Amino acid sequence: MAFKKIQEQLKEALEVQGIKDPLPFQKAILSKIKGGSSVFGIAPEGAGKTTSIIISTLQKLECTAFEDAPRALIFVKDKESALALQSEFERFTRRMDLRIYPVYEEHNIEAQRNEIFEGVDIVIATPKRLSKIFYLNGINLGKLKLFIVDDAEFLSKPTPFSDVIRIPESLDRCQYAIFSTKFDARMERMQELFMANAQIVEVGE
Fold first, then answer.
1. What is the pTM of this model?
2. How far is Cα of residue 133 from the mean position of the Cα atoms in its chain?
3. 3-class DSSP state for residue 161?
């Protein structure tokens, strides 16, 4: 079954990448995210979680830049993960004007604040650095539409978990999507704190 009811630019980008039909996990989760539901996406490696993040984000942002404040925030484990996800996004956004910005510890924080202030659409961040920038009033999350965690296994460590769960306390209306290979105690805690109405979409091996 081909992808349905997606932005024309996104459809073209998928065709360029040779992606014609959704994988079972993508088929299960993309319609829920598109419909506005918060989700826990649980699936093994290779199920299409990263591509699901990219498709969902581009669809939600209508494949175009808008104002200055970011509309999507994606948490990742470390610098390497941030740069890798940025590169994956850029495969799909070559003909779009979306601004994608990675935030991680191994970069000057003042430079990061300035570049975010100039205007970004998608921020891909490590929890520690994003938390620091946020509490320095270096990022406006008032326009945020999507809050995503990619490969959430790294949240098993207390510090990144704490940095992630503090952010929703300051958000008004936002859609959440947490992707992982398993639903564990940390996710149960997120469910209690800010994802009470989230759906669990799980596809096995």
1. 0.96
2. 18
3. helix
